[in-house]
Amino acid sequence: MTFEAIEAQGAEALIEQLRNELIERTYVPLPARRQEIPKDGGSKVRILSIPAIRDRVVQGALKLILEPIFEADSNRDHWISSQAEST
After folding, report:
1. Which of 4, 43, 45, 84 keeps 20 to 30 A from 25, CA to CA?
2. Separation between Cα atoms, residue 10 and residue 17, nearest integer Å
3. Rama region for 17: left / alpha / beta (φ>0; ψ in -120 to 50; rest)
4. pLDDT tens sequence across 39-63
5. Where are the alpha helices (DSSP H) in the chain?
6. Is 1 helix (H, G, I), strand (E, B) or coil?
């Protein structure tokens, strides 16, 4: 799916479709597009994997949900270890 297709159908439709797939547990990520990037003057290449737009949307949503949880756990663990060191 391209940005043009998303704009034509509407971002809300894509989000609703992804939401339904996630709730119904039918969401499957699409294969990443592989792009070769020249490295060291062209003698070598580096493979860059580019996820589909729909997969980037899901990744971004998961990041928004999970990051605060892990940061809270990390801060709590840091506080506990600093308290143990001070005693």
Report:
1. 4
2. 11
3. alpha
4. 887 788 999 999 999 999 999 999 9
5. 3-9, 11-23, 53-86
6. coil
